[in-house]
Each structure stands twice: as C-alpha cells, then as structure tokens.
Amino acid sequence: MSVAENLKKIQSELPESVQLIAVSKKQPNSKLLEAYDSGFKVFGENYVQELCAKAEELPQDIEWHMIGHLQSNKVKYIAPFVKMIHSVDSFKLLKEVNKQAKKNDRVINCLLQMHIAEEDSKTGMTQDELTELLNSPELENLEHIRLCGLMGMSTFTDNQEQVKKEFLSLKNSFDKIKGEYSLPDFTEISMGMSGDWPLAVECGSTMIRVGSAIFGQRLY
Ligand SMILES: *Cc1c(COP(=O)(O)O)cnc(C)c1O
Predict the structure, then answer these.
(1) Which CATH code, of 3.40.50.300, 3.20.20.10, 3.40.50.1110, 3.40.50.1860, is assigned to 3-215?
(2) Which ligand 1 atom is the nearest neighbour of the CA of 212?
(3) What predicted TM-score, i.e. pTM, was given to this entire model?
(4) Which atom of ligand 1 is nearest to the CA of 209?
(5) How many CB atoms lie within 10 A of CB 73?
(6) Of 108, 134, 178, 186, which residue is least crowded by CB atoms under 10 Å?
C-alpha cells in the first residue's frame, strides 16, 4: 500500500480525539511529500540535524514534533519552529527549552517523558523525578514552555500484557498529575507506535507516533 493509503487506513481506525504523528525519521523527503500531498502535515523526528534539514527543505506549513532524545545544547536549533517536544526528560532540559523559546519569542509545547519500559535503554523520568519537577517552585517562572502532558515508550516485546501494564502505568501517572496539580494545558498522553498503537488507544493515548506502518522500513 502507498503512504497515502496507509495513513488513510490508520486514520479511519483512529478515534477522532486521538492525533496521529507520522514518524518520518530516516525516511527520504519524497516519502514525507507523499504524505503531505495527500493532506497530512504532522511529522515526528528523532534527530536534531535531520529534523532541521527536513524543515528547511520541505513545505513551511508542516507541524514538526521532536520525539527523540534531545541534548540541551541542541535545543537552540529546533526552538525557532518546533511545534512540540515529546521527549523532555529532565528539568535542566525543560529550562533550556524555556530559554531558547524566549529568545525566539515563542511558547513551546512540551511533554514530559516517563520511563515506563523494563529496559534501561529507554530514556525518561522516574515517578520521583517527575514529582520533583512538578513540585519545583521554579516551574512557575518558565513562561515560555507549556506543559501539555506525558510521553512514554513501552518495552519492545510481543508480550501484550506487559505492554498494556506499562501503558496503564503512564495513564495512571497522568491521571494523578491532573488530580494533584493545576495544569490546564496538561491534556496529552503520547503513547503507541506501529506495533502497539491500538492497545495504547485502548489504554487512553491521545497521540500515537507511527513510523514504519506508514512509511515502511527505514533506511539505515
Ligand atoms: C521510531 C519511533 C517511533 C515510531 O516507531 P515505529 O515502530 O516505526 O512506528 C515512535 N516513537 C519514538 C520515540 C520513536 O523513536
């Protein structure tokens, strides 16, 4: 099936309240343009350099989401245009996003990435780190970031029960934060990829990040 057909199929199966992010890392511009020409404009990228190159080469009205691990010293390159950063995994990084957003006279949407997988390799904050961040008095001074919710990546496994448990733990953390803090913009749960997005939606996802099921295999 073509990129346009894949997109159409996933969107037809997705509740209207759930947003689809097309993960285009390691895909050539031609594939992104196939999606764009079919009317789709929301892309997720993992690497700063690749993201900046694509943003420059492709149409200006594309909405770019940064979903990969982000180093503080690279925030400045994406701050002028990025729509949302899904992968904020430390207070230090959040402060840098605020600083760079301010320089660009913008407010940048941020999701806090939580560690929900079993593997150590998947980055993200623990519940304690998240609580510490949310309790920090400094948070109020960050006027150029908008805390929009949580992001998580499940363990890479065929065990659906395991994945479900992890998705539900993210949903649970989200509900707890909503209950305990006054965060009006905190509305998103970014979870679910090509292999597990229907389960993620079942567990309360509001944004799914789907790559290979749309664009096919990546070029490495
Ligand atoms: C690559 C990636 C995805 C998409 O993965 P697919 O399995 O190709 O759908 C989603 N989220 C993150 C953080 C990724 O790095």
Answers:
(1) 3.20.20.10
(2) 8
(3) 0.97
(4) 10
(5) 9
(6) 178
